Each structure stands twice: as C-alpha cells, then as structure tokens.
Amino acid sequence: MAKVVFYEKPGCINNAKQKALLYAAGHKLEVHNLLKEPWKPENLRLFFGNLPVSEWFNYTAPRIKSGEINPLELDEPTALKLMIEDSLLIRRPLIQVGKIRQVGFNPEQIDAWIGLTPEPSMIGDIETCPRSHEQTPCPTKG
C-alpha cells in the first residue's frame, strides 16, 4: 500500500476510474484539484521526467483541439508557461509517490511501480477522454 498524491480534474470520468483502481489496490490517496494548484515551472516539470514535451499535454484540451496550440512545436519553457496559464493543457493525472512523480495513467507502469488490481490488461483505455470525440468539452469544475 502506498500513499499516492493524485492531481485530477474534478468531474473527469477517467480520473474517477483511475482513483477507484488505486483505492481497490489498497492505496491511500491524497487528491488535489489540478486546475487550482498554484503551479510553478520547477514543480510541474518534475512530473514529466524524460518524456518529450509533446507527451506532457492533454490532447483533448480545447486550445489543442482547436489548433491554437500544437504541442509538437513547443520547447520546454514555452510548454510550462502555457500549462501554468491554462491547467487544462496538462495531461492527467499527475501522480506522486514519495519522491517519484509521473504524468498519465499507464496501468502496466502503475502496477510495476506500486501495484494495481485488477489485472492491468483487463482495464482498457482509462487515459484517453471518452468524450474526446464530442465538440463540446467537459464542463470545468474548479
């Protein structure tokens, strides 16, 4: 059992499923509203590790879906600045256990890291927003 610091968008369907899986595995969660967190570049950057900048983003964010922002064209400082200004751009969830931080919810990686039940192969896609095909984004609570 681990103490998991979990940054979510309240009301996000997949974040709710992800939390349920962590609780079912016996983990204790400290849940934070990702949209209200007072992010600083140096703190936010810790969650992205060695991932390319393009993998830091929530591709269902309205500004990305509209084409206003193209994550493939951004450098690290610009990406962090944009994310701090608009937290909807940040890929979810952000997870921390001890000093280790990561972005996104890959069930196999989570299972190897802290343990996850049920079998990760039976979970399906719980990172891509099920509403990503809709024209109207999820309401922002927060």
Would you give an account of this structure?
By secondary structure, the protein is of the alpha+beta class. It is built from five helices and four strands, in the order βαβαααββα. The mean pLDDT is 90. Strands 2-1-3-4 form a four-stranded mixed sheet, with helices on one face. It has a single domain, classed as Glutaredoxin (3-Layer(aba) Sandwich), CATH 3.40.30. Strand 3 (94-97) and strand 4 (100-103) form a beta hairpin. It has helices at 13-24, 41-45, 62-65, 76-85, 107-114, and strands spanning 3-8, 28-33, 94-97, 100-103.
Overview in brief:
This protein is of the alpha+beta class and 142 residues long. 27% of the residues lie in helices and 14% in strands.
**Overall number of structural domains:** 1
Pattern of helices and strands: EHEHHHEEH
CATH superfamily: Glutaredoxin
Q: What's the shape?
A: globular
- Which structural class fits the helix and strand makeup? alpha+beta
Range of helix content: 25-40%
Report strand order across the widest sheet.
Answer: 2-1-3-4
Q: What's the alpha carbon Rg, rounded to whole Å? A: 15 Å
Estimated share of beta-strand residues: 5-15%
The first-level CATH class is given as: Alpha Beta
Low-pLDDT parts are none
Terminal CA distance reads: 29 Å
Counting H and I runs of at least 4 residues, what is the number of helices? Answer: 5
CATH topology assignment:
Glutaredoxin
How many beta-strand segments? 4
Biggest sheet layout: 4 strands, mixed
At CATH level 2, the architecture is 3-Layer(aba) Sandwich
Question: What is the average per-residue confidence, as pLDDT, rounded to a whole number?
Answer: 90
